[in-house]
Amino acid sequence: MTLVDFRLRSGSAHRPRPKPLRVLVADSQPVVRDGLRALFGSVEGMSLLAEVTSAADVLREVHLHRPDVLVLDLELPGPDGISVCRQVLRSAPDTRVLIFNRFADATSVTAAMRAGARGYLLKRAGGADVLRAVRSVAAGEVIFGAEVANAVTELFFASDSPARAPFPELTARERQVLELIAAGLPNSAIARRLDLATKTVSNHISSVLAKLRVRDRAAAIIRAREAGLGNPVS
Fold it and tell me: Which of 42, 101, 178, 220 is deepest in the core (most CB within 10 A)?
């Protein structure tokens, strides 16, 4: 009661309430959208503006709503999630992007941060962690989930070690194939250059896409070029 009386005397009761944080969710999984909708609806100071299920819809909804925070799944159907993040921040620089993903390997986290994301959280994070992450990125902070932070720490300490080739999860042959597709060569030219059957090249590309967790050749090329691969070949 004392606190209420003080606020009335000081005139704070007439101060406008802070505007709620406006959040846009981009995720293709209904169970994830349902959970986030219930979470954001359960707290004051947060407003869920819209939900989208494909990368093609993200830019349109960002342009329409200008959210404070975009909660973005990197595995949306459509263009590569990293390029979507980059396009969002070019068109709406005041929007903060929080990556909300199933996995958090060092390569994906690094690519997301380079694209301008301000946070990276795994989908198995608890509700309190999600709310804290949304509020933190909206305030201009950079935040990682615990497991994501571990991946970033490993990457940091690896930078003190002798330089290693990008994408250590790939075999030497897979890395060769990735370098050549990033350089713009079709499968037939890669097969000739590496003295392989075209079918073998296709199998290597399928393995590369699976290991890099990207959907298609174009997304793999983006990842490779961000890592410095793909110089034109003669």
Answer: 178
Q: Tell me the whole-structure pTM to 2 decimals.
A: 0.63
DSSP state string for 180-220: HHHTT--HHHHHHHHT--HHHHHHHHHHHHHHHT-SSHHHH
Q: What percentage of the chain carries pLDDT values higher than 90? A: 45
Note the Cα 166 to chain centre separation in Å: 19
If one counts every other C-beta atom within 10 angstroms of the C-beta of residue 73, the result is: 23
| DSSP helix, strand, coil percent of the chain (3-state; round to 5) | 55, 10, 35
What is the distance between the alpha carbons of residues 226 and 114, in angstroms, rounded to a whole number? 9
Task: Tokens for 153, please give them.
Answer: 């720490």
| pLDDT 10s digits, 122-143 | 999 999 999 999 999 999 999 9
Q: Which amino acid is at 13?
A: A
